[in-house]
Amino acid sequence: MFIPGKYLLFLGDVRDRLDAKTASGLIDWAPDRCLGQWRLPACGIDLGLPDLDFAEARAQGAKTLVIGVTPFGGAIAEDWIAPIAAALHAGLNVASGMHTRLNNVPAIAEAAARSGASLFDVRVPSAPYAVASGGKRSGKRMLMVGTDCAVGKKYSALAIAREMNARGMKASFRATGQTGILITGSGIPIDAIVSDFVAGAAESLSPDNAPDHWDVIEGQGSLFHPAYAGVSLALLHGSQPDALILCHEAGRTHIDGYPDFPIPDLEECIETNLRLARRTNPDVRCAGISINGRALPADERDEYLRALHERFGIPCFDPVATGAAGLVDHLENGGSGDVMADRQIVGVTQRTN
Amino acid sequence: MFIPGKYLLFLGDVRDRLDAKTASGLIDWAPDRCLGQWRLPACGIDLGLPDLDFAEARAQGAKTLVIGVTPFGGAIAEDWIAPIAAALHAGLNVASGMHTRLNNVPAIAEAAARSGASLFDVRVPSAPYAVASGGKRSGKRMLMVGTDCAVGKKYSALAIAREMNARGMKASFRATGQTGILITGSGIPIDAIVSDFVAGAAESLSPDNAPDHWDVIEGQGSLFHPAYAGVSLALLHGSQPDALILCHEAGRTHIDGYPDFPIPDLEECIETNLRLARRTNPDVRCAGISINGRALPADERDEYLRALHERFGIPCFDPVATGAAGLVDHLENGGSGDVMADRQIVGVTQRTN
């Protein structure tokens, strides 16, 4: 699936920035592809891009209207339909990560047919996948595994791949969810695959590659999530990771929305992931811990990362605040899990001592 | 989904009895619903039912032609289409567990539309399922977990539910695959559900029930299978079992078709299943071990079961050869996992000492 850019980001009528995580992800990770935003009068957020109407966007080089919001339930709202149809009539393609397929909304299907523009449903698998073979593939793989959903797995993988690429290392970010797919223009919507084929889809996401190439794979869900653990395990098995990065949000104590499900100790999270991952790659190790520290002031976040590093002896970083340089240093230097100099391992924003 | 009986079993042109496992399952577990068999000239097997043509079957009370074979790939073969259409014209419904949907074969869809008969695709989920809630449900649940696929999980669950029902206990067999669904007329084809919803589907399969009611749930796959472990984990979490039964085929050392994947020690199989199952039911225990002993002579099988019981101290039985009476005795007597008198626990066919 190749989605033509540049993009006009559709924000609809959402009131909360958290409901615009696809648009935010695109602005953070593919800013040069984001030309403007389009909002309904009731929209309560502003992502800081120019407000463009469809004709203006088209004139400035936009090719695709991207639905940048992910309201609960994943449905296309009634009052989005007319503007989406108008965008199609103006000659824009439309890309969506909603569960509702664009083509299943008659007014949208009709407008696309008339304008000749394309509809991209990134949450709909574009190919049938084979049952997993379990066969070993060449190249190296790193998988993000979470203590919960929405703890920063995608940002971690993007930060690591970007850091690797900036150093001239061979590395590819591999998207497993709608926002990641829109950011990179390719990937597999793992959570939309029929269960028998998820591990097989994960195998096909990171095919044979050069021995020194890293696939940096976005994770999904968590082995500790009562609804999504099966998805996480299939992705873990099919990815056959050499390295795991445990992703966690500082301060989160329970699975979001599941108050009866505490998040286990990070030791147990790592141990359970490694134990199960060894089934398809006996040499897997935990290479680092990625912390979403947005809830902490900078000094507390640094202290949190330092304490975590002392406890585990592996690189600990915040993909947004500190970046993944410490982790990639460690990998370039052999990365066996030995405790190295603090500066190299702990991704600390600022150090005064 | 209610599939009207009695059934005429379609055996097509298969050459190997193992490819007729749906028909065999129906004959073993729902013999009073199986009226006859229908075979193409090239068919190489005979399941011992009368060969009936469609009009004869109809006249004797058959309501549905059931595709009783499951060839690799799950597709409807070219030369099945004409006879299936003829069955519809003769007034029979058609039920299928193939991946190919009956309605997607034009000649079949057309014949059904003309005859007014119904098409049942038991491998197609009949309802959308919610994301799992993780909420505790009333009643008791027992889940079959396998060391591999095709080790006897369905037969184990059917044997246990039948034994419970014969004693007047409240118990329901819960089907999770096509053959189980055809045997009972209800269930959920777990392996055909989109991955995000598998645990939720498993929750809905065994809803709130009387405190002394047992849901006896057919398992799918194995936590140790490189392709299907995710399905197994989602089913384990969503079922919230109070009791697990580990199902294993005597003599099987590797995952079938995956020679690089040895089956772990049974201790490890039990421990891994319990460890992950505790996430949604901290009180889960392993209540027994079910052995498919078809490869063993009767005396070796008995010895195998006895040795296994000495090793684990829980009921060990063969659902076909010994039945599940020993397990159900144990449950009725408290079933804490204590080692009880041999006779009660080990389901031995014949004892001479």
3D structure, described in words:
Chains A, B: It holds the Pfam family DUF1611. Chains A, B: This is N-acetyltransferase DgcN. Chains A, B: InterPro entries: DgcN-like, DgcN-like_C, DgcN-like_N, P-loop_NTPase. The structure is a homodimer of 353-residue chains. Chain A is globular, with a radius of gyration of 21 Å. In chain A, helix 9 links the parallel strand 9 and strand 10. Chain A starts with 6 loop residues before the first strand and ends in an 8-residue tail after the last helix. Chain A contains twelve helices and eleven strands. Chain A is of the alpha/beta class. In chain A, 32% of the residues lie in helices and 16% in strands. The longest helix of chain A has 15 residues. At the A-B interface, helix 7, helix 8 and helix 9 of A face helix 7, helix 8, strand 11 and helix 9 of B.
